[in-house]
Amino acid sequence: AAGRNPQAAASRPAETWQTGSAERPLQLANLLELEEAAAKVIPAAGFDYIAGGAEDEWTLRENRAAFGRKQVAQRVLTGKVVTDTATTILGSRIAMPVIIAPMGGHGIAHVSAEAGTARGAAAAGTLHTVSTVATLSLEEAAQAADGPRWFQIYLTNDDGFNAELLQRARAAGYNAIVFTVDVPVGGNRDRDRRNGFVYPAAAAPRNFLDASGRPRAIDRGFKSRLDADSIDFVKRHSGLPVVVKGVAAPDDARLALDAGAAGIQVSNHGGRQLDGTPAAFSVLPAIADAVQGRVPLIFDSGVRRGTDVFKALASGADVVALGRPVLYGLALGGWQGVQSVLQQIERELRTVMQLAGAATVDDIRRTGLIG
Ligand SMILES: Cc1cc2nc3c(=O)[nH]c(=O)nc-3n(C[C@H](O)[C@H](O)[C@H](O)COP(=O)(O)O)c2cc1C
Ligand SMILES: CCCCC(=O)C(=O)O
Questions:
Q1: Where are the domains of the chain?
Q2: Which fold has domain 4-370?
Q3: Does the active-site annotation cover 110?
Q4: Predicted-complex ipTM score
Q5: Is 152 a pocket residue for ligand 1 (Cβ < 6 Å)?
């Protein structure tokens, strides 16, 4: 059931999908205003799929609201001046503590699909996490740009296929595997049910096509039973550092650590899975406490502003990952739109750092929040 949408796409006849095709930089005041603009470019059911969350979308809204309950301390007499926003994550140097979260089907948003996203990320000096259900194959996405890149895996019920996918990722030069564990089943997404949404043929995930173009493994669905052995499987077959993504409880963080995770991605999948759970930002401090700096923490779900990045890092995250705004930037401006989105949040972060007396990313991590 978890793989229902992409699976349906693989067997649908060709159809036209009139989505974004512009290639231009974007003039942005902030990332929040992108959603309304993107709704005019992406076909309605595709837009709902991207923008929506599970059930009442309470957690989707709470992901934003929670940032409003912690405050940044203004510090203007420290004598510090922002030097740069660069940082290192799992051995990769990136220009800002912001990366791109894995999202399926970039072809839903723009004709360049993941090639545009990868190029935009590289132009901004950061990395893109390519999804299992990406429109382009992991090899095509890798060829689109130089620089560090991560591959996200959903384990299917076909372990031979899973092992092959991990080996392909290693061969294509991916630097880490992001193993997503919060989709043992697809969430209850009312908008998609109402729209009868399935991935359009234009976004059918090519990782599942065999040499003769026939769909493979995706009809077996994604694994529901996930545990320490699953993490070990991903480690063994990839030979790469494994980030366990979709951790929202300290006990899952401890379990992932014991199973050999090289990183933990605190996330509630952007409010798309279990509605009624706390904001990802609300559970971050307790997870950081459980992890005790033993592995890096990546944080996502609801990040839209430089202040959000600052607050997440001050709460224990090493980097944050950005979801929906990247697809909106891609829809509106192709690779240049993605670059604009990343540059905008970096610009905001720099200003916040200066006003909060943090000269570097490490300084942010040493800063306490109010509230
Ligand atoms: C359209 C869409 C598709 C997604 N597909 C995937 C996916 O294939 N794999 C995955 O691990 N997470 C997926 N996610 C979740 C994101 O990685 C991330 O957790 C979430 O979008 C972060 O929240 P934000 O959009 O509020 O920034 C998807 C999210 C969206 C919006
Ligand atoms: C059913 C999983 C497909 C991609 C995904 O993770 C999402 O839409 O959130």
A1: 4-370
A2: TIM Barrel (3.20.20)
A3: no
A4: 0.99
A5: yes
